[in-house]
Amino acid sequence: MPAEWDRGMQWMQVDNEELTALGPPRPALAPRRRTNASSIVPRVLIADDYVDAAKSLALVLSIAGVQTEIAMDGAEALARAELWNPHVCVLDLLMPKLDGLEIARRIRARGWITRPLLIALTGRTTAQDKRDALEAGFDHYLTKPADPATIVHIIESYISSDDVARSACDPFYGP
Length: 175
Description:
The chain is α/β, with parallel strands linked by helices. The chain has helices at 16-22, 51-63, 74-84, 100-110, 127-136, 148-159, 162-169, and strands spanning 43-47, 67-71, 88-91, 117-122, 140-143.
């Protein structure tokens, strides 16, 4: 190995036994082959003022075959939702400009033909926080750090539902 390769890097050798011990990759994060109703490529808006959290979730979702957009504050999230028409919005509750609860209320008040699934992803953990989120219009309430496989499962279940499939094929369909 050339000496310049070693600057700032540490090489690690992994043998087959160690790889076997790790087990197979988690199937919930593997890219999906889409068929029938699930031929829709999910559009997911991620809104979180913590940049690393938003980018990490976007990366995980893109590996699972999801198209993502990121917003760094509530006002940007609402504007992107109106322009991009996502299937799913993953919203932090505590953001500048507009909080996640207000974004959910405004999205629900719009009466869009395709009703996006709203997932609260937050560090707030009280029962009252959860009640407030559900009353604002959220469909799911997850606390940080949430298992990415859980988020992927929620998104895939929603995308494969009959309402999403019909609304994707018929622009005049509305629940």
